[in-house]
Write a structure and sequence with these properties.
Helix content: 10-25%
Shape: globular
Strand order of the largest sheet: 3-2-4-7-8-10-11
Largest sheet: 7 strands, mixed
Number of strands: 11
Strand content: 25-35%
């Protein structure tokens, strides 16, 4: 388990299977959610924190190499063509964006996607290169360990291989 410092936000795609993570704010995205919606919800949650700072944002959805499926319609919603919307997060005091989605960082395409998201948002991004499975039970404030190779990109886009339990990543208790 990876215990995240709070306040943290989790956004669940409407079609993601398994147990749903619970954080300071936990929201289920409606069918048809767009990249613009994701950025809006992150900013809205951040504006509700006492410190105007979100330590972590968890996006729990289906994924493929360099793609997030947050809209629940089987179509990639966030990808290399529209990840630029994440520039609206720059300078907004965000800690780490955790992409809990299958194979997002599988090849160079996915690694570029995560690097670009980190640079645009001005915060760390964590993703893995393998299929992800949610444990049957995950305590409040936690996400389960990642399967496969887990990577962290810092705000400059520099990539590091990290353990599946998030050791060494800011925002982890």
């Amino acid at each position: 388990m990876i215990k995240l410092k709070q306040p943290s936000l989790v956004l669940h795609s409407c079609d993601v299977p398994g147990q749903k993570y619970q954080m300071w704010q936990s929201w289920k995205m409606p069918k048809g959610a767009s990249p613009k919606d994701v950025v809006y919800w992150i900013l809205y949650a951040r504006d509700q924190t006492p410190e105007l700072w979100l330590r972590n944002v968890v996006i729990n959805c289906h994924g493929l190499d360099g793609k997030l499926f947050v809209g629940g319609d089987g179509q990639p919603t966030v990808n290399n063509y529209n990840v630029g919307i994440f520039d609206k997060l720059r300078g907004k005091d965000l800690g780490t964006i955790w992409l809990v989605a299958c194979k997002v960082a599988n090849t160079g395409i996915g690694k570029y996607f995560c690097e670009h998201m980190a640079q645009l948002a001005g915060c760390s991004v964590v993703a893995a290169d393998a299929s992800q499975y949610v444990d049957a039970y995950c305590p409040w404030g936690c996400v389960d360990n990642y399967e496969g190779h887990t990577y962290e990109w810092d705000a400059s886009g520099k990539r590091a291989l990290v353990s599946g339990n998030g050791a060494g990543i800011p925002g982890v208790q």
